[in-house]
Structure formats: C-alpha cells, structure tokens
Write a structure and sequence with these properties.
The protein is mainly α and about 140 residues long. The protein contains two helices and three strands, in the order αβββα. It has a three-stranded antiparallel β-sheet, with no helix packed on it. The termini are far apart.
C-alpha cells in the first residue's frame, strides 16, 4: 500500500516531462548588421529563426540510448587505462637499468677529439661573412 504514492509520483514526473517536450515552438530572432546577436524579442532588421527540434520522440530516445552506451564505454575504457597505469607503476622499465653498474669507474675512457688545424682552411673558398642586426633594433 505504501508503494502507491511512490508510483503515482513517478507517473506524474514522467507525464510532466512529456508535457514539457510538447511545449509550443520558440522563435529566436537573429539581429544586428552581421547577424551575430540573438534575441527572444523581435528586433529591427532581425530574421526569425525556428528552433524546433524536428526529431520524433523515438529518435530522441534512440539518441539518448546511444549517448548512454557511449558514456558507459568511455567509463570502462578509462577504468581499464587506470588499471594499466597502476600496474605499470609497479613494473621496472624493460631494458633500462635503475642504478649505474658498480664497475663504472673501470669503463674505458673516451679519447679526446683532435683539434682542427685552423691553418689548413682556405679563405678563398669560404662564403662572405653575414651581417647580423644588433639586438633591440627592429626593422620596419
């Protein structure tokens, strides 16, 4: 017997929602010289736009169902990603050492690179020097 008021309230809410969708169509006016201003009241040089939803109730229901399925799929994918990230934090990166080897001091030293001899460059084959504008001056 206590369920009857709850069922009646749910029916009223559902009926109210259906009646809200059956509201008369609204008209919006596109105003301004470039048509970038919208108003619910008529304006000079304004054009009336109809903002009715041409979809049927079954199309609206199908669209809501698709959106709910997409949202559920997104939640599942996000949960899977978080689980993979949590598992990856616990694993060491493959192929990478976390600490240098104990015998790093005994590794072969690099040979120094030989310095280029400046006298061997032939100045006649070089391009002329570039002029770089001074810092802080702007060209117009």
């Amino acid at each position: 017997m206590k369920r009857l008021p709850v069922v009646a309230a749910a029916a009223l809410v559902t009926l109210a929602g259906a009646m809200a969708h059956a509201a008369p169509p609204q008209t919006v006016y596109r105003c301004g010289p470039d048509g970038r201003t919208y108003s619910q009241t008529p304006c000079a040089d304004g054009k009336a736009l109809s903002v009715d939803d041409p979809r049927s109730a079954s199309q609206n229901k199908a669209a809501r169902e698709v959106a709910e399925r997409d949202a559920e799929q997104a939640r599942k994918l996000a949960d899977e990603r978080r689980q993979r990230e949590a598992a990856a934090k616990d694993q060491k990166a493959a192929g990478f050492k976390t600490a240098p080897p104990a015998d790093a001091a005994s590794a072969p030293a690099r040979k120094p690179r030989p310095k280029a001899a400046s006298a061997s460059v032939d100045a006649s084959t070089m391009s002329p020097p570039m002029r770089v504008p001074a810092q802080g001056t702007a060209s117009k």
